[in-house]
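Hi C.,

You asked whether I'd gotten around to modeling the 499-residue construct. I have! Everything is below, sequence then structure, no commentary in between.
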Amino acid sequence: MRINSKQYSRVVLLFGAATIVALTLWSSGNIARTLREEEQRKVELWSEAIVQRAQLVRYTEDLFSALREEEREKADLTGKAYRIIQGANPGAPIDLTFVTNFIQTNRTIPVLVYKDSLLQADINVDPAMRSPAQLDSLRDAMESRGSVISFEQGLTLYYDQSNRFRDLQAVMDDIIHSFISETVLNSASIPVLLVDSSLNRIIKADRFEQHDLIDTAALIGRLAEVNLPIALDLPDTERRWILYDESLVLKQLRLFPVVQLLIIGGFLLLAYSAFSALRRSEQNRVWAGMAKETAHQLGTPLSALLAWVEVLRTEGVDESVLKELGKDLERLRTVTDRFSKIGSDPELAPNDLVAFIGDAMSYLQPRMPKGVHFEVNMPSAPLITAFNPALFGWVLENLTKNAVDAMEGVGHLSLTLFSENGHAVLDMEDTGKGMSRRVQRQVFDPGFSTKARGWGLGLSLVRRIVRDYHGGQILILKSEEGTGTTFRVSVPLVSEEVV
């Protein structure tokens, strides 16, 4: 099968468009993959930093535990020192200097010593808390925390964490809070979730829209599929998980080529539509100019022929011959009138379409091949439509001649006129060779013809006359190869009345 230049151009354009699309998608996909790999490397480094800071927090907590134990041991020693002093015999030669110095050098741990009643309040107790009621309240608080050491002889020591230890504990709490709020959520512009150990509850979220957090289970499940969760272990807390998504930039980059191709496609479609409209307009102007020029060229010989008919009549030529010659000349005048009206707005007047089609077919039938059998079915009541006789007669003539050509001069041609939904409908059915689906799609296109010497103007002009000039419709009702074709023409009715 040979490919003409038009088909070759289409193939080249299609191949070029496919190449552009493929290169655009490949390029954007490659950039997206590179960006995703970089984001994954950042997350890996970020997760390593999280683990290291978590280890630092755990080490600090271990250090605090050791400090707590040391303070308890120091409180225990302080209590023993008080017990030694209380149990010492005043007359016994015992050196209590070391014990007294040990008690006096305790400047960090608040201590209350009771033996039935308050025996000693350590100097580390705030002076503002020295009243008996306040000291009793402080003792109860120490006892509720379990900071109590009991000795023999009814001696009881109550102690609290040192002021320095409480300050360090506050700093530790701030470190843990900032670890969660800053380190965990500092994700290089990547949306991050901090969830509980069961992967069911969101503890913190960063760079997510509010509507994304409505369905928690769906969001957690989706992120767990996108990237593997990162385990996070903090002191005195259960394990938590970090889930993260692709960045907004990466998501937009994935959609960019699609949006870009849609914009380019829309622009190309708009440009093609404008070019096609301009080309059709140019073709219409050329055909209209050609038609008017044809009408102008036919005008002079037509006038001369009409004059010669009158001359022949004066010469005594058979009147029947002159009558038939006059019909042909009148037909030629009608054709000239048709060509002159192409490209300008025709005048439409209400007329009986039934009578007009009857007159037109009575002229066409004798001039068609004898092998074509005509069948004309029309209603008895007139159908009044607004049409131009010269142009609408062109429609009938063109469709009739195309049907006769399709039957190659032998067959059956049926015309059926009826009214439907406020329209006059004409079906013209032939028993010709029919049309393929490809031909049906192109048969009304200007320049398309199945004839070797056809110009492809007939049916395109017929459609223009019916649709543009008369506000009607023309279509192929049915067509099968080897069986025949049925054209349907419909134009709006003005009124229906019986004459």
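If it helps when you're writing up: Residues 94-99 have pLDDT under 50 and may be disordered.

Thanks,
B.
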